[in-house]
Amino acid sequence: MEQKNELIKKPTTFYGINLSFLKRHGELIAALISGILILIGYVINHMSTQTPWYIFLFAYLIGGFAKAKEGIEETLKEKTLNVELLMIFAALGAAFIHHWFEGAMLIFIFALSGALETYSTEKSSKALSSLMKLQPETATRLDHGLVSTVPVNELNLGDLIQIKPSERVPADGVIVKGETTIDASSMTGESIPIFKKVNDEVMAGTVNLEGHLIVKVTKRSQDSMFSRILHLVQSAQNEKVPAQAFIEKFENLYVSFVLLFVALMLILPPFLFGWTWSHTIYRSMVLLVVASPCALVASTTPAILSAIANGARNGILIKGGIHLQQLASIQAIAFDKTGTLTTGLPKVTQFVNVSPITNDDLLGHVAAIESHTTHPLGLAIVDYAKEHIKTIPNPDQVKIVPGYGVYGQIDQCDYKIGKANPEFIDEVSLHLFLKEVHIKENQSLVFIERNGEVIGYIGLNDEVRETSKEAITSLRQYGIKSVMLTGDNEKVAKTIMEETGVDSMIADCLPDQKATAIKQIKKEYGSVAMIGDGINDTPALATADLGIGMGAGTDAALETADIILMKNDLMKIIDTVKLSKKMNRIIKQNIAFALMVILVLVVSNFIEVLNLPLGVVGHEGSTILVILNGLRLLKNS
């Protein structure tokens, strides 16, 4: 049966050619082949007295097929004209008056820009598939003592599910048995894992780090927070930005105007000016050539590609020109905290020892015990110890207490290292310790108890990136406001706000609340960008006018983002703003110049001071000039 199924699968190769590769890149390959044919035809034309029209014809067919098909189908479906049709008519008009090379060049430039646009669109469509990878497909259900594996979408309210250590939570629910530490950073942005016990809620998509859990399902798969994230991303991606609607409207008006103008040129001149019919047809064909939007297309495409190449060379991945263009008009940027403004990793900020033993000895004992855990705080303590002491001893005994800390024995002393919980750390000793020691707020605290007496603590915090403050200050110089969105509590958020200098903040944000916050920021400031790195940021990234991802972020965030800072350097956003403003300035120059040249050529043709060769020189010359102007973006400013 398996062999039969293999036989009926669609072939992936044909005579050694990868069909899937052709499907993905066929439009671009066709445009490039068309360009090669045009170059061959151009060389032959200058080496002989006859025009190799058959080569240019092949260039027409190969390069123009995709755009011609798209233009015709769109016209039939939408009942509106488009630039694709005008390009077809212009190229056919050039061929009609035996200017095959000019017509083929029009086809090539338009086909190349269309292929690049298609490629960019397909890349952005992968966001949802990346999100889906983070949702478990199955769950372990308990039913009257029977254990079975079922699809997540078959879970019902009240079902009991079993979640083992290191497994991702498959559904929203409440713990009925067990306790553990949950890594919720992918959903809430909380940088420190959270202890969960009986009657606490857990969310689908979070990770169970330590304990065995029995969870009662409280929400169906389609109603979970994870599903809401998927829905938010999908809805936001399907919304058209205002610029798209304007371009579509302009396209229809432009094509209608040109075709109407050409139609009038074919009919009226013999009656109004006494032109002969052959002269009228000649002037109409010249009009089709000089009025074709070749220079207008070239006004944007080379500039955009140059800007994208410039960005890539400098660690900035830009998924499409429209995204870079939008950045120039951004009024405010919303920053995720964990992994964006901060490194996302806890780091020891304070070590206090009030015992008679030396700091090095105590730190060595603590690190020896913590080295046997996988908790992020424990790993940070071990890293800190390695920086300050030469060797870390071996403990005699270690026992992890999920949600509280770790117990250990070393040098015949009993240690407890963990949270200030009376069920773990001696309450009386802790109270006496706190009366003697002043503790800095806004940090995660790990207390050290030795032989029943609290003798010190270690403070940890999420470290702010070195470039965060400089980036915020630079954005302010461009008139761009900064807002911090975080799932952390208000105290921690205020500390980060003071360190980075952001203009405002919103704390305790769940993923759907971040998306709502983006909408509110839009109302206050106008055009808004969002910078984030986790799955919890994807709704906000998709809802914002522009999504910017950090290079070390999750696949979901990177796929949803429109621009990616590959080196996790926030100063790169300043470089991107500069590049965006320069690109917009050059595109405006190009469009103004192209329209001016078209206007001059059309008027010159109408008053009969322009012949076809001069029209071609003016038209192609303007195209070359705007391309060269766009290529200036390859240089770093």
UniProtKB/TrEMBL annotation:
<keyword id="KW-0812">Transmembrane</keyword>
<dbReference type="InterPro" id="IPR023214">
    <property type="entry name" value="HAD_sf"/>
</dbReference>
<keyword id="KW-0547">Nucleotide-binding</keyword>
<protein>
    <submittedName>
        <fullName>Heavy metal translocating P-type ATPase</fullName>
    </submittedName>
</protein>
<dbReference type="InterPro" id="IPR051949">
    <property type="entry name" value="Cation_Transport_ATPase"/>
</dbReference>
<feature type="domain" description="P-type ATPase A">
    <location>
        <begin position="133"/>
        <end position="234"/>
    </location>
</feature>
<dbReference type="InterPro" id="IPR044492">
    <property type="entry name" value="P_typ_ATPase_HD_dom"/>
</dbReference>
<feature type="transmembrane region" description="Helical">
    <location>
        <begin position="253"/>
        <end position="273"/>
    </location>
</feature>
<keyword id="KW-0479">Metal-binding</keyword>
<dbReference type="InterPro" id="IPR008250">
    <property type="entry name" value="ATPase_P-typ_transduc_dom_A_sf"/>
</dbReference>
<dbReference type="Pfam" id="PF00702">
    <property type="entry name" value="Hydrolase"/>
</dbReference>
<dbReference type="InterPro" id="IPR059000">
    <property type="entry name" value="ATPase_P-type_domA"/>
</dbReference>
<dbReference type="Pfam" id="PF00122">
    <property type="entry name" value="E1-E2_ATPase"/>
</dbReference>
<keyword id="KW-1278">Translocase</keyword>
<keyword id="KW-0813">Transport</keyword>
<feature type="transmembrane region" description="Helical">
    <location>
        <begin position="591"/>
        <end position="610"/>
    </location>
</feature>
<dbReference type="InterPro" id="IPR036412">
    <property type="entry name" value="HAD-like_sf"/>
</dbReference>
<keyword id="KW-0597">Phosphoprotein</keyword>
<keyword id="KW-1003">Cell membrane</keyword>
<dbReference type="InterPro" id="IPR001757">
    <property type="entry name" value="P_typ_ATPase"/>
</dbReference>
<feature type="transmembrane region" description="Helical">
    <location>
        <begin position="28"/>
        <end position="45"/>
    </location>
</feature>
<comment type="similarity">
    <text>Belongs to the cation transport ATPase (P-type) (TC 3.A.3) family. Type IB subfamily.</text>
</comment>
<dbReference type="InterPro" id="IPR027256">
    <property type="entry name" value="P-typ_ATPase_IB"/>
</dbReference>
<feature type="transmembrane region" description="Helical">
    <location>
        <begin position="285"/>
        <end position="309"/>
    </location>
</feature>
<keyword id="KW-0460">Magnesium</keyword>
<dbReference type="InterPro" id="IPR018303">
    <property type="entry name" value="ATPase_P-typ_P_site"/>
</dbReference>
<dbReference type="InterPro" id="IPR023299">
    <property type="entry name" value="ATPase_P-typ_cyto_dom_N"/>
</dbReference>
<keyword id="KW-0406">Ion transport</keyword>
<feature type="transmembrane region" description="Helical">
    <location>
        <begin position="103"/>
        <end position="120"/>
    </location>
</feature>
<keyword id="KW-0067">ATP-binding</keyword>
<dbReference type="InterPro" id="IPR023298">
    <property type="entry name" value="ATPase_P-typ_TM_dom_sf"/>
</dbReference>
<keyword id="KW-1133">Transmembrane helix</keyword>
<keyword id="KW-0472">Membrane</keyword>
